[in-house]
């Protein structure tokens, strides 16, 4: 079955470009388009897409609120949201991730990255590109904990290895990269990531990365 994609952007030319790229792939199908958040909600209910490619800044309803309603507790369908952002990163990206987005991608990303990101998100994983994460953290570094604050009680529920895995997730590493770094199998990493998400009450890797920085476990600029 092809992955059903809904394109949401207030610029028709961009939607046309995205459609051309995606429809060239046999496993992807663009099922609809929307020019703002309100239209996106209607299209999600009517078309039941697997992935919503969501712009942030749009009229009537922005991508943050649309994402919140699409992925929230009252969600109607399986749709996952992949946020599109400009090169300098919109100030709303963090809010979009908190609202339930499964990842974010630059609008000028190569076509193969866009296609792969959609496949990753559709498979239930999070798209957390290290290069974008670094720019995001640089921009918001002054608003993140310095690392001197008390560690949240929830972190104490993690084992030492799970804490290691969480730190690497926060750096944007994939399961395969974490496995190589820790000299364990990729299956073991997936198990650890699952335990981290369950213990901390998080939905996916993106929320885990945000949690790691907001809790002070990982500091901006640290390796």
Automatic annotation (TrEMBL):
Signal peptide: none annotated. The keyword 4Fe-4S does not apply. Pfam families: GerE, Response_reg. Residues 4-122 form the Response regulatory domain. The modification 4-aspartylphosphate is found at residue 55. GO terms for molecular function: DNA binding. SMART domains: HTH_LUXR (SM00421), REC (SM00448). Transmembrane segments: none annotated. Keywords: DNA-binding, Phosphoprotein, Transcription, Transcription regulation. InterPro entries: CheY-like_superfamily (IPR011006), NreC/VraR/RcsB-like_REC (IPR058245), Sig_transdc_resp-reg_C-effctor (IPR016032), Sig_transdc_resp-reg_receiver (IPR001789), Tscrpt_reg_LuxR_C (IPR000792), WalR-like (IPR039420). It comes from the Bacteria. Residues 151-216 form the HTH luxR-type domain. One of its GO terms (biological process) is regulation of DNA-templated transcription. This is DNA-binding NarL/FixJ family response regulator. It comes from Streptomyces griseoloalbus.
